[in-house]
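Please check both lines for our workbook:

___
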Amino acid sequence: MTTHDTPAPETMGTPADGDSFVYGDDEHLYEHEGRLYTSAGGDWDDLVDEVTSLNEERIVVNMGPQHPSTHGVLRLILELDGETVTEARAGIGYLHTGIEKNMEFRTWTQGVTFCTRMDYLMPIFNEMAYCLSVERLLGIEDQIPDRATTIRVMMMELNRIGSHMVCLGTGGMELGATTVMQIGFRERERILHVFEMITGLRMNHAYIRPGGVASDLPDGAIGKIKEILPLIEKGIRELEALLDENPIFKGRTVGIGHLDLTGCMALGLTGPLLRSAGLPHDLRKTNPYCGYETYDFDVPVRTGADAYDRYRVRVEEMYQSLRIVEQTLTRLEASVGEPVMVTDKKIGWPAQMSVGGDGLGNSLEHIREIMGTSMEALIHHFKLVTEGFRVPPGQAYVPIESPKGELGAHVVSDGGTRPFRAHFRDPSFNNLQAVAAMSEGGMIADVIVAVASIDPVMGGVDR
C-alpha cells in the first residue's frame, strides 16, 4: 500500500492493477504504477462527531491525564452509554523522560542512575535488571561475590513489599478506604528508612552496580531490618483484617476487572495479574537468578482473575518476601567482612564507598589513600570515573520478576564505554493493554478498580 498526500483526481478514474498513471497538482506531478490507495489517520474527535450524529445517549469523556486515580499521567478515553463503558482506550506519552536515550550518552555505571528512576516504586528492580544484563555482556556473572548477591536479594524483596504496599494503599484510597492508605504508607515508610540507612537515599538509589553493590551494609542495618520485619507482618495482617471479608470491599472488587488466563496470555500480561488467573509463572522459580533457587518460598496463585484475587495474590506475596528476607539475614550474618564487589579493579567502581551526612560517596579512607599515598590509584580512579570501563561487543537480555511482572533489560554494546542501546521491557507497559478488556461492559466507577488492580506506574511505561 502506498500513501500519498494528494489523491488521484476523480476524472482519472481508478486504474486497473499494473496500469501507469500520473496524478498531482499543477506544480507537482507523480507517476505511479498499480492501484492507488489513500490512507489517513483517525482520531477520537471523529468518534465524538459520529456519536453526536446518531442522536444516541452516548458520550466520550477523558479520565486523566491529570486524574489521581489514573496512577500518574495516564489518559483514559471512555465512551459511555449512561454509566456503562462501551469502549475504552489508554493513551500514554505524557511523561516521556528519554531515559533510555540518555543512557547512550553515559558510562555503563552512570546508566544505573538513569534507569533507577523509571518505575520509581521499584528502583532496586530497575537497577537489578540492567546490571544483570551488563554483567552477562562482561562475562562476570559467576564472579559476583555471594554477599553482594544476598544483599541484592534482600533489597529486592524489601522493595517488593514497599511497591505492593503503595499499590494496595492507593487502590484502597481510590475506593474510599483511607485507613488502607495510611497502613500501606506507614509500612512502606519503615522500608524506606532502611533503604536510606543502606544507600543514603529513600528512592532512586543507584545502589546496585555492575559487579556487585556500591557499599556493604552499614553497622546496625541487619538489626534494624530484624526490628521492622514483625512490624511489617503485623501491618499486612491489619490489611487482611480490614479487607479480606469486608462486604463493601468485596462488592467493589469481586468479579470486577475480570480477565481470564486466555486473555492474559494473549496480551502478554505477567506478575500478579497472570498468577491471579491461575498460572504459577514466577521468574524466580522458572528462570532463577541471584540464587533464588536456594531460597525457600512459594508462588501464590488464585483463580478468580479479578481485582479481588489480585489483591489477595499481592498480600500473600508480601508474606513470601518476608520469608526470603529472613533467610538473607541469616546468610548476611554469616558473611560479614566478605567483599561486595568483583575483584577486577577495572570494573569495580567505585572502589570504596560509604554513607555520610550527604548521602553515598567515596569513603574518607579511600580518598586519603589515593590523594596521599598512591598516585597510581588516583590516576586509575580518575580514568574509571571519567571514562568508565569497556564492555565487549554483543547484546544481552536478562528478565527478572518485579512486583508488577517480568522486567527485562535488553542491552547492546559496540565495545565502548557506554551502551550503544538500552531498552527495557517494563511490565506496566504490557499490563496496560488490559485496560480495555477489563473495563468495557462494566460501570465507569469500576474503571478505577480495574486500573488500580493493574498497578501501572507511568514512569516505567513512558521511558
In short: The mean pLDDT is 83. The longest helix spans residues 146-174. The chain has 18 helices and twelve strands. Residues 123 and 203 are 7 Å apart (CA to CA).
